[in-house]
Amino acid sequence: MAITNRALAFATRWFDQATVARIFDPLVADWQREWQEAPPSQRTRVSLRGLAAFVCACIVSSPAVLLTRAPKSVADRVVIRMTRFIALVSVVLLSPMLMRLADDGRYGMLVLTMVPYAITTAFPFAFIGAADAIRRTAPIPPNVERALALKLAIVAVLFMIVFGGFVVPASHQAFRVIETEGGAPVIRAVRELTTWQLITDPTMAAAQEPYTGGADRATRIQRELNNRAAVALMPVFVLWIRWIGIGAGRGKWWSPLPAPLMTAIVFAVFTSGSFLGFQLERAYNWVAGAGHWLPIAAFLLWGMSANYRRRLIIKHPAT
């Protein structure tokens, strides 16, 4: 049964040997035996029932994945690479403001309020280096690799939700308050509201904002919520496509691509996809904010095609 072999291979990649031997080996053995003993007319039902049991076993055993500890050297390497990348990109993003405000007495406070935005912008692209730190250094068991990647993905989404939905809006508002120096009251624009405020109290959004194309408040809020949701998933997709890329092209001089070049390509796909999505949304009257999901769709297609190519390489190594 091909399905049982694939199921057992999946369990081996995600769970430690003790868990596989204790839970999945007996389950798959019973599944195979029941399928062989069943009459042909009942084998489809047996396969579906066995698959359901396997999925339930994976769900019940999932805490073991989250509790799997990676070697300290690998975890430290991931943190160091991500921290260096985020720090470097943040400085680059803040450089124009540093030069523009060099003679401003409020220099320190204004730059400080923009640091969360710079960190949040750089954060998703740091996962290319994180994947390299896990998979392109000293080999570790597959289940340990995947456990670390899964925990990174969960932390990444939570980080983007908190920073992108709460910290960055507050820093934008603080920037405008400092810039006005106690002048006219600052009315919060859509990007300066927390995600919770956008959902529960949309009346706080400014009635008029620049660069909105005349969109009403409800439309701008819907676009902003879609933008934040799509950006929150960005690190997961960046990690995924780099992970597959490393596995698909080992041993070839051109694959996987060097991390800096891969980062530039991912950034180009994201920016061009965002621009194209906005244009298509306006041209075809899509649901407000739907264009923000175009980069995610592009990364999904990228990852699926890379995974398909990886499978072909496994089946036909000579090609």
Can you characterise this structure?
The chain is an all-alpha fold. It folds into 2 domains: 2-66, no CATH class; 72-315, no CATH class. It contains 11 helices and no strands. The chain has helices at residues 2-14, 17-37, 43-66, 72-100, 107-122, 127-135, 142-180, 195-200, 217-248, 259-284, 294-315. The chain is elongated. The relative contact order is 0.08.
How would you concisely characterize the structure shown here?
With 319 residues, the protein is mainly α. It has helices at 2-14, 17-37, 43-66, 72-100, 107-122, 127-135, 142-180, 195-200, 217-248, 259-284, 294-315.
For this entry, give a set of tags.
mainly alpha; about 0% strand
List the helices and strands and how they pair.
Layout: H1 2-14, H2 17-37, H3 43-66, H4 72-100, H5 107-122, H6 127-135, H7 142-180, H8 195-200, H9 217-248, H10 259-284, H11 294-315
Percent helix: over 70%
Uncertain regions: pLDDT < 50 for 5+ in a row?
Answer: none
Secondary-structure content class:
mainly alpha
Cα-atom radius of gyration: 24 Å
Distance between the termini: 27 Å
In the residues, how many domains can be counted? 2
**Treating each run of at least 4 consecutive H or I residues as one helix, how many helices?**
11
